[in-house]
Amino acid sequence: MSERTLAIIKPDAVKKHVIGDIISRYEQAGLTVVAMKLMQMSKPVAEGFYAVHKARPFFDSLCTFMSSGPAVVLVLQGENAIKKNRELMGATDPAKADDGTIRKAHGANIEFNAVHGSDSPETASFEIGYFFPGMEIFG
Ligand code: IDP
Ligand code: MG
User: Fold this and answer.
1) Is there a contact between 48 and 130 (Cβ–Cβ < 8 Å)?
2) Which pLDDT tens digit goes with each residue over 90-123?
């Protein structure tokens, strides 16, 4: 089933000049970029995006990181896009990520881990709507 997922190339990966490498991985895996922008989140925008993690000890640090510089926010579309992107990303902690994954290649640690990907249809729907009005998605 074709579906959509929200991906973010986080500020650490933008600073490392690996935007192109990461987008190549999405495309080589058969995912289509149907929306994309480079943007720097304000801290409140990052807090709203990660509201589900509000009670976690790393919440403030995570939102400071996510608003620390420009990030690439994308919508990817394709067969099983949510799961496919999670597989491309690898485990949250790059030290535990499989070889060949984005986080293994570009993540520094469990916080500065290069990419975000929605983890379910419900979160994908919320996250896509958080950053993109329908008219900016070319499906
Ligand atoms: P995910 O990005 O693999 O879905 P989540 O558990 O949803 O992982 O966490 C969201 C983000 O919060 C992670 O990608 C990472 O940047 C950060 N994070 C997760 N766990 C920790 C932690 O234990 N310490 C610091 N940052 C963390
Ligand atoms: Mg998550």
Assistant:
1) yes
2) 999 999 999 999 999 999 999 999 999 999 999 9
Backbone conformation region of residue 129, classed left if phi is above 0, alpha if psi is from -120 to 50, else beta: alpha
For ligand 1, say whether the CB of 29 is within 6 Å of any of its atoms.
no
The pLDDT value recorded for residue 139 is 85
Give me the residues near ligand 2 (ion), CB cutoff below 5 Å: 119
Q: Which residues contact 131 (CB under 8 A, 6 or more apart)?
A: 6, 37, 39, 73
Find residue 37's DSSP bridge partners.
Answer: 73
- Say how far apart CA 43 and CA 96 lie, in whole Å: 28
Rounded Cα distance, 47 and 20, in Å: 27
Measured from the Cβ of residue 127, the count of other Cβ atoms closer than 10 Å reads 22
* Cα–ligand 2 centroid distance for 105 (angstroms): 19
25 lines ligand 1 (CB under 6 A): no
pLDDT tier, 57 (very low <50, low <70, confident <90, very high otherwise): very high
